[in-house]
Amino acid sequence: MTVALFGLAGTVAVVGIGLAGLIMNGQRRTDSAIAELRASIGELRERMAHLEGLLEGLRDSIAGNRAA
């Protein structure tokens, strides 16, 4: 192999390693963003369940139904 081919192979290797690092960093950020979204959705789910219970109680009190 000539010196030019060694230089080209080295350049390709450096670019490949750089791209791999960028991809891995992006993947880690995406995973942490997904984890944050899941936590937020869980909190919203709990709040909606609480509101649903309050609305059912309000509906029952307006309709005159009493809990057993």
Structural description of this entry:
This protein is mainly α. It is built from one helix and no strands. The protein starts with a helix and ends in a 5-residue tail after the last helix.
What's a concise summary of this model?
By secondary structure, the chain is mostly helical. It contains one helix and no strands.
Topology:
Layout: H1 3-63
Average pLDDT, to the nearest integer?
91
Strand runs, count:
0
Order of H and E elements: H
Q: Give the overall form.
A: rod-shaped
Q: Indicate the structural class.
A: mainly alpha
Low-confidence residue ranges: none
The number of helical segments is 1
Sum up the structure in keywords:
68 residues; mainly alpha; 90% helix; rod-shaped
